[in-house]
Amino acid sequence: MGDSSNSELPNEQAVAARWSGLRSELNQLYSKITELEMELSEHSLVISAIQPLDQGRKCFRMIGGVLVERTVGEVLPAVQRNKEGLQEVITRLSEALVKKKKELADFEAKYKIKIRKTDDIGSSKEEDRPRDSSAAQGVLVASS
Question: Which GO terms describe its cellular component (predicted)?
């Protein structure tokens, strides 16, 4: 992907397609991070619920879609390892998100892309108009 950002794109449709692709990648990163943060929260809840329990107490864990019987002493370290792994993945995805935001910002600067709300188009006095965010839609505008 780094190659395409250094070369000029042939036309406005290619620029719009690339911009749309970058936005899509950014949204996917946001979604995945949010999903993993929810899973991390669930792991934290499980850890806090079983940590004070007797290590020999019976508990059940879902492994590959199969419910298996284990003890708290066996499950707790595994859940903690999974939580640490999730934290690492979230950190890496957050770093990728920062890079993708920069790539998108650089692309928008290179091609002078500005986002306008549809309710702003055609108005010469934008600051005088009330903004209704529910009626506004994003529009891709490339200035010459």
Answer: prefoldin complex
pLDDT tens sequence across 101-124? 999 999 999 989 888 877 655 554
Of the CA atoms within 13 Å of residue 54, those in its CB half-sphere come to: 3
* pLDDT tens digits, one per residue of 24-49: 999 999 999 999 999 999 999 999 99
CA–CA distance, 27 with 91 (Å, rounded to integer) = 17
Map tokens 């792994």 to a residue: 85
10-121+133-142 in CATH: which number? 1.10.287.370
- H or E, element range at 63: strand 58-63
For residue 76, give the DSSP letter. H
Q: What are the residue boundaries of the structural domains of the chain, listed by start?
A: 10-121+133-142
**Residue 143 burial (C-beta neighbours within 10 Å; 0-12, 13-18, 19+):** exposed
47's CB contacts (< 8 A; 6+ apart) are 76, 79, 80, 83
Q: Beta strand 138-142 with 66-71: parallel, antiparallel or unpaired?
A: unpaired
Assess contact for 93 and 112: CB atoms under 8 A. no
Distance CA 70, CA 63 (A): 11
